[in-house]
């Protein structure tokens, strides 16, 4: 089998080395950007579906590239995950979110939690619970002001290290959220075992609310089960009033999406913290 692998490697080598060079270049660029602190967080509101009150803000990282301008995360997070650079970048994000919260606190703004995206790989390098504790302490941030967005792949299987770190984070009072729900393979019972607080339904399902009853039935089922399990439900990617109305009728707890607000730089969101969004 090993010899086979070698043979096919040689067969594809011209193309592979091209890709490899490209990859090494982008990896180096990303590494330099991390060292050069070229990243910034934007914040997207998550609001109560009934009252329109601000409930949380999701921190979404952007690469402010000196030549290319603002690079969206879909263009560098996958590479960061593959190369392990996500560990360093992820810590940068935690640090920036905590220091921003401290700044808002100093400005006497009405604070709501900041929700931070965490990749599965960040659990395999050091202890993420300790990392959060360190940055929250450093900036005097109460754990109730931090939420963590996890993907379903963090929930799969029985990884002892991940469950211990999640339990440690939970016990501090940090809320756990499952992101992009419905796109992976986790079951609600797995989520319950992890003691999750919030279930965020992927925007692919929100967009089905425009076309017939099928999407509505999906949300109805998810919302009623989540409520039985004491989880609150967020719909992401809400873009229209019609989608909002359906979600309100189904007692979806919170909504997020362009209809409510796009992700905004910290300076702009500061002015909008007292706003009623709906
Ligand atoms: P996500 O966590 O699912 O974030 C939601 C994405 O949907 C964001 O894209 C957001 O700007 C976009 N979005 C929000 N409302 C709407 C809407 O109404 N319609 C549509 N079509 N899109 C909407 P963004 O900011 O480009 O982020 C993409 C992904 O990159 C995120 O998906 C997340 O998986 C990842 N990401 C972003 N920041 C971080 C980070 O700090 N750490 C990690 N590990 N991943 C991150
Ligand atoms: Ca997210
Ligand atoms: Ca999402
Ligand atoms: Ca996503």
Characterization of this structure:
There is one protein chain. This protein is an alpha/beta fold and 278 residues long. 45% of the residues lie in helices and 19% in strands. The chain has helices at residues 2-11, 13-35, 77-83, 86-106, 128-138, 160-172, 188-193, 203-207, 214-228, 241-249, 266-270, and strands at 39-48, 54-65, 69-71, 114-117, 146-150, 175-181, 198-201, 232-235, 254-255, 264-265. Strands 1-2-4-5-6-7-8-9 form an eight-stranded mixed β-barrel. Helix 5 runs parallel beside helix 6 (160-172). It is globular and about 50 Å long. Residues 1-8 have low confidence and may be disordered. The protein binds ligand C2E and calcium ion (3 copies). One calcium ion binds at residues 179-180, 200, 236.
What is the strand arrangement across the widest sheet?
1-2-4-5-6-7-8-9
Radius of gyration equals: 20 Å
Helix content: 40-55%
**What kind of sheet is the major sheet?**
8 strands, mixed, barrel
Determine the structural class based on helices, strands and strand pairing.
alpha/beta
User: Terminal Cα separation, in Å?
Assistant: 61 Å
Query: How are helices and strands ordered from N to C?
Result: HHEEEHHEHEHEHEHHEHEEH
What ranges have pLDDT less than 50 throughout 5 or more consecutive residues? 1-8
Compute the number of strand runs. 10
Strand percentage lies at 15-25%
User: Any idea what the shape is?
Assistant: globular
Ligand list: ligand C2E, calcium ion
Mean pLDDT: 91
Number of helices: 11
């Amino acid at each position: 089998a090993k010899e086979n692998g070698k043979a096919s490697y040689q067969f594809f080598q011209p193309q592979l080395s091209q890709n490899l060079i490209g990859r090494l270049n982008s990896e180096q660029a990303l590494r330099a950007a991390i060292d050069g602190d070229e990243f910034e967080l934007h914040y997207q509101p998550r609001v109560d579906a009934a009252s329109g009150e601000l409930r949380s803000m999701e921190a979404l990282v952007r690469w402010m590239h000196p030549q290319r301008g603002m690079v969206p995360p879909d263009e560098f997070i996958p590479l960061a995950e593959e190369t392990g650079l996500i560990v360093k970048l992820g810590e940068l994000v935690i640090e920036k979110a905590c220091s921003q919260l401290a700044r808002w606190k100093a400005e006497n703004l009405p604070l709501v939690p900041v929700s931070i995206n965490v990749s599965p790989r960040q659990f395999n390098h050091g202890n993420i619970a300790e990392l959060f504790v360190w940055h929250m302490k450093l900036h005097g941030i109460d754990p109730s002001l931090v939420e963590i967005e996890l993907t379903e792949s963090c929930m799969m299987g029985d990884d002892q290290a991940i469950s211990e770190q999640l339990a440690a984070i939970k016990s501090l009072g940090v809320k756990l959220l499952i992101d992009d729900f419905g796109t992976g393979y986790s079951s609600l019972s797995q989520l319950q075992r992890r003691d999750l607080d919030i279930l965020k339904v992927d925007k692919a399902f929100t967009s089905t609310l425009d076309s017939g009853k099928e999407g509505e039935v999906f949300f109805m089922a998810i919302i009623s089960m989540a409520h039985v399990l004491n989880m609150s439900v967020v719909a992401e990617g809400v873009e229209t009033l019609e989608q909002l109305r359906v979600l309100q009728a189904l007692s979806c707890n919170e909504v997020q999406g362009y209809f409510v607000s796009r992700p905004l730089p910290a300076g702009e969101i500061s002015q909008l913290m007292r706003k009623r969004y709906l």
